[in-house]
DNA sequence: CATCTTTGTTTCATCGATGAAATGCCACGA
DNA sequence: TCGTGGCATTTCATCGATGAAACAAAGATG
């Protein structure tokens, strides 16, 4: 029987149950020494009044808010919503709610996140920067409970959970080379961002593999795509298909680009993988249901989410050893697009 | 110059600036009567100490937390992450952060959301229920600042923002009929959920259109899919393609199912739309980049997000008129899959 | 020049839950 | 019988920001 829960406090509940607010608190936080009979009485009163804990009050006293912030570029990118999904699930184990902030990959907004301007007072921050990079370490000050995701952007004293971008990109490219492809293009380069961003690291992996195999990488085959949306993949692929010397394979820096690229290929009647092979990166759920199913890099998203949340939890619980840098295992998932 | 922001309070900032905590508060909340010179001094002190407002304390005093909760079944479904993306953007205008809760479409979890057990004390709730339905109105008690999305599930006194599910589904089906299709199947039915859930309403629209046209709807052409994930769409389509009397069109109850279905068609060498036409529902970004591009219902997601947030804001700001029920405009987006 | 406004700042109490410590009660052993 | 210790509950102060109202100083008004 739940009543109007206007402004019911622990004191109100206590009054009804014949105890003090403090005892109500004890009951609700499972303090060991509460008589079972009292516990029942209090819980009944809680129910009757429709009492809900005021998290602001608790937060003020305890210094914990019970929520963490996840800051990512854009929920519209499959990889990020998959990541968000998993971070939320993992956070539940620690009793945390998750506030999601979209930075739009804008430097200004990313700075706001670090400074706290655009962030609720939360117990911690899991942050995948995009526009920030080395040299921005000074903006980290005051963010002790922070885990950086994705790129090893900062040298400062921060925990990092990263995928092995370069190695995985090299692996993907090597696979294409091993299949006999020679004119291998890349989609997703972005000269505007830092040299340790995902875009740059994946490009490096691609270049390494090509160089090791003695294959050429003419500039027109390395297509810039700033946004990594479906649309950008399609545009890039259309461009590649129009080249005089058409590539026989494309390595896309994420699956979203790859799916856009597959679309462009199909629209132009170009057969994949016969005429052009396509490899992606991220292994998002949609990759498996693309046509043809997308060969891609599995970066260990689940592992990333879990590690990030656990690492943050450890920090919040007072772990003070030096910041760690964790690389997840990645692997190539071979499907039919390459 | 940002320093260790351990536990800096307004009082500390005030001490440095030579004013009271109250004046600091005035500065930070843009109170009109503060001398410019004082304002500068305070802001400098804020910067110097790396002060960050304690939102718990503010929340305790003002009764506002500055965040709202968005409860949806699963961020893994394209429609929902698109919705989340937009809700976050709209909420920014009102200065709200958004906490996202995934219910997994589980009744138990949905009840926890309403009761507040699984929800931070937030300024309001935008909730798309799935397993709850008529008869569960009693669980609404105590949730005054609430906007229900999607299905007109409750008769109780709550604001609703809904799409015209039945009408839109009828429209989609009528379009297929108008293109000369007669053996039209449906994917996404779910007998387990309430009669006013999206699944049921869309099925009704489909059935209405078929009946009006005098077309048969044998049970084997109405495929159950409880989850509405890519996988379910693929499985359902595979099933349909194996029928003795193969359908010449499919209406999928969402785009994710439709994209899964397209995949199954392609894997079986069945040409779309020549051999079988496919229509989806939701017009998610991926629909446009499916192959062939997906004909689908545009349900006005942007409008839904905006209305929901604005309606909630109005309630929070004390609007007290009777709850409203808003239906968004939907339309058919014709592409090449049908 | 005394009074009334306006402007800028301060004082004080308060929001609701919890940490620390005190209290009352009962059981138990010597 | 008295002390000792454990259990259950209470008392009290406190976290940090803000609403209400008081206050001081500077201008406006007659």
Number of helices of chain A: 12
Oligomer: homodimer
Order of helices and strands of chain A: HHHHEHEHEEEHEHEHEHEHEHEE
Average pLDDT for all residues of chain A: 92
Q: Considering DSSP H and I runs of 4 or more, what fraction of the residues of chain A is helical?
A: 40-55%
Percent range for β-strand residues of chain A? 15-25%
Low-confidence stretches of chain A: 1-5
Q: What kind of sheet is the major sheet of chain A?
A: 6 strands, parallel
Report the count of strand segments of chain A: 12
Note the gap between the termini of chain A: 61 Å
Biggest sheet strand line-up of chain A: 2-1-3-4-5-11
Q: Which structural class should the secondary elements of chain A be placed in?
A: alpha/beta
Which descriptor suits the 3D outline of chain A?
elongated
**Interface with most residues:** A-B, 59 and 59 residues
Radius of gyration from the alpha-carbon trace of chain A, in angstroms: 25 Å
Organism (chains A, B): Agromyces allii
Keywords (chains A, B): DNA-binding, Transcription, Transcription regulation
Pfam families (chains A, B): LacI, Peripla_BP_3
InterPro entries (chains A, B): HTH_LacI (IPR000843), LacI/GalR-like_sensor (IPR046335), Lambda_DNA-bd_dom_sf (IPR010982), Peripla_BP_I (IPR028082)
